[in-house]
Amino acid sequence: MKQSKYFNPTLRDNPADAEIKSHQLLVRAGFIRQNASGIYSYLPLGKKVLSKIEQVIRKELDEAGAQELLMPAIQPAELWQETGRWDVYGPELMRLKDRHGRPFALGATHEELITSLVRDELSSYKQLPVTLYQIQTKYRDERRPRFGLLRGREFIMKDAYSFHSSEEQLDDAYKLMHKTYSKIFTSLGLDFRPVVADSGAIGGKDTEEFMALSSVGEDTIAYSDSSDYAANIEMAEVHVQYEKSDEEELPFAKGEVETSLDHQIHTTVMKVEDEMIAVLVRGDHELNEIKVKNLYGTNMVEVQNEEVDLKEFKGTVIADTAVKAIANGSIIGAYAYHNVNPDRDLSIERYEDLRFIQEGDPSPDGNGTIVFAEGIEIGQVFKLGQTYSETMGAKFLDEGGKAQPLIMGCYGIGVSRTLAAIAEQNADDNGLRWPLAVTPYHVHLITINVKDADQSDLSDRLYDSLKDEHDVLYDDRKERAGVKFKDADLIGLPLRVVVGKKANEGIVEVKRRDTGESIEVPVDNLNSTLQQLLEQMN
């Protein structure tokens, strides 16, 4: 492709609203443009990278036996009402009505629609297992879109759904998809970790996230410094043994006294469905609301902005396990007490792991201690079980002729988020550095001076000969050399071929974008040199 005819508008300065490197460089290098908050167009370079990512995904999923389809983005409200998610999904679900007043939703996810699609088609155990996937635009009305493609209101996603007649089949599919995801993200050149995660609004039981390690990630990963254990901080279990001191228990009394944080008891009042509960954690720990949600098996958990007197509280009181070991502690706030010994003075119904894990805590697998890292979620695998098939009546006949709910799995990859994660991990101060698997072009051919006949003629010949073997972007623009080099660094193609003053000698410069290494090459050896360098970079 000749750059003089290419739609590739570059910018010298960072956009004012671009906070992170990938957002800044993808806009400046002409890969994307914002149309509204959280909504982007993919320009030709960006579309080529997206297509390469999708190509890798399709290859691995097809090899795993999955079948591609395409479902509508507009979904009837009644499907979401069948599962109850129309009312509980929240304001992120974009809702609309047609001219007849019939309610619809723009697809934030497709569990309901795929279940409705297969419930009349997969009627026998003989048809199972089946895995179906699509690559499609999704819509979520984010409260605060930010970080470019990492948190938008419209994004591209690969979502797959598997259907089974037994838990064993689901386990096999889950393991296969986990392996497939690892192959996909490895092929894309990402530094990533699979971590134990929370299923969120999707539902189901076992689930893992695939996280691309990055300092700008919005998720914190807790991992062991001595093993493969890794979990989203929301799901990391705390395995700390607490022992109560043998100090004398002092008389319980009203009023606040000064104590260390590890002797303080902090209270959070929460509404769990229709029940009011008070949750207690130690002062130096942070309450993990996800653990409360999972303890009660519901998404209907809401923090109440009120303080209560624990001696008068009429609801249920639960506490983190660390609270049990507090001796002569204090309750702070409007209703303060001191010399508090929880088992003696408070009506605590149960002790559970309710806090966030901390760096330095022992790893839950018993190997090493916990360290934190930031990550960008790029994929997630779920065991949905019968969450959707039971509520939507999706059944099959088993070997005995008895109707059973389909057993389901769900597997997502954020395609546009993956593009941003790759950009975030592969950039320097000058611009992007695309891995071979996703680079829009392999070779950037640059003519220093298009007015020089020797340079222009040689560049044209090289373009005609190279484009049969490589993806080539040919900068034939009538721009200064400095402008061309800055744009080349921004765009970040793996290899740069510069036709300059030695064109009349048949010599060009070849430069690697990743290392900055450059060599002079006779044009007769150019193709073999490029092939050799690309093999080294693969």
TrEMBL record:
GO terms for cellular component: cytosol. It catalyses: tRNA(Pro) + L-proline + ATP = L-prolyl-tRNA(Pro) + AMP + diphosphate. Residues 38-435 form the Aminoacyl-transfer RNA synthetases class-II family profile domain. Keywords: Aminoacyl-tRNA synthetase, ATP-binding, Cytoplasm, Ligase, Nucleotide-binding, Protein biosynthesis. CDD domains: ProRS_anticodon_short, ProRS_core_prok. GO terms for biological process: prolyl-tRNA aminoacylation. It comes from Guptibacillus hwajinpoensis. InterPro entries: aa-tRNA-synt_IIb, aa-tRNA-synth_II, aa-tRNA-synth_II/BPL/LPL, Anticodon-bd, Anticodon-bd_dom_sf, Pro-tRNA-ligase_IIa, Pro-tRNA-synth_IIa_bac-type, Pro-tRNA-Synthase_IIa_type1. Consists of three domains: the N-terminal catalytic domain, the editing domain and the C-terminal anticodon-binding domain. SUPFAM superfamilies: Class II aaRS ABD-related, Class II aaRS and biotin synthetases, YbaK/ProRS associated domain. One of its GO terms (molecular function) is proline-tRNA ligase activity. It is found in: Cytoplasm. Coiled coil: none annotated. Its EC number is 6.1.1.15. It holds the Pfam family tRNA-synt_2b. Catalyzes the attachment of proline to tRNA(Pro) in a two-step reaction: proline is first activated by ATP to form Pro-AMP and then transferred to the acceptor end of tRNA(Pro). As ProRS can inadvertently accommodate and process non-cognate amino acids such as alanine and cysteine, to avoid such errors it has two additional distinct editing activities against alanine. One activity is designated as 'pretransfer' editing and involves the tRNA(Pro)-independent hydrolysis of activated Ala-AMP. PANTHER family: MITOCHONDRIAL RIBOSOME PROTEIN L39/PROLYL-TRNA LIGASE FAMILY MEMBER (PTHR42753), PROLINE--TRNA LIGASE (PTHR42753:SF2). Belongs to the class-II aminoacyl-tRNA synthetase family. ProS type 1 subfamily. It comes from the Bacteria. The keyword Plastid does not apply. The keyword Cytoplasm applies. This is Proline--tRNA ligase. Homodimer. The gene is proS.
